[in-house]
From TrEMBL:
It comes from the Bacteria. Residues 11-92 form the NADH:ubiquinone oxidoreductase 30kDa subunit domain. Transmembrane segments: none annotated. One of its GO terms (molecular function) is NADH dehydrogenase (ubiquinone) activity. It comes from Ruminiclostridium cellobioparum subsp. termitidis CT1112. This is Respiratory-chain NADH dehydrogenase, 30 Kd subunit. InterPro entries: NADH_quin_OxRdtase_su_C/D-like (IPR037232), NADH_UbQ_OxRdtase_30kDa_su (IPR001268), NiFe-hyd_3_EchD (IPR012179).
């Protein structure tokens, strides 16, 4: 369980991030988790005087998420990482590596997404 977790929508994200910055919170990082269905959780972690504040959004895979890098420039790296490794559709990143910050052309796209494996049954055998 994460303390001081505030669940918001992606429409509220930039407003809440801006408010936290004005209140003196510093951006620590963001984390991302594939829920195993058609949604992804993204949690933005902030600190002020050793007190954490965390904002969580849950989005459908493919849904647009606004970049917070316009407000918090240091989010550029973690947003590119989440975009690349989870396939998170983050729009408006100040510096967008286009999916090639960590992975090369030969590597699988979005390797941290849970993959659904389908077993084809042939002739009664699996």
């Amino acid at each position: 369980m994460i303390e001081n977790l505030v669940e918001i929508t992606s429409d509220q994200l930039l407003g809440e991030i801006t408010k936290a910055k004005v209140e003196g919170y510093r951006f620590v990082t963001a984390s991302c988790a594939d829920n195993g269905d058609d949604t992804i959780d993204v949690i933005y972690h902030f600190d002020r005087d050793y007190g954490m504040k965390n904002f969580k959004i849950t989005v459908k895979k493919g849904e647009e998420v606004p970049s917070i890098s316009k407000v918090i420039f240091s989010a550029v790296l973690v947003e590119n990482e989440m975009k690349e490794l989870f396939g998170l559709n983050i729009t408006g990143i100040v510096i967008d590596y286009g999916g090639h910050m960590l992975l090369s052309e030969e590597e699988l796209g979005s390797p941290f997404l849970r993959q659904q494996i389908t077993i084809e049954q042939r002739g009664g055998k699996q």
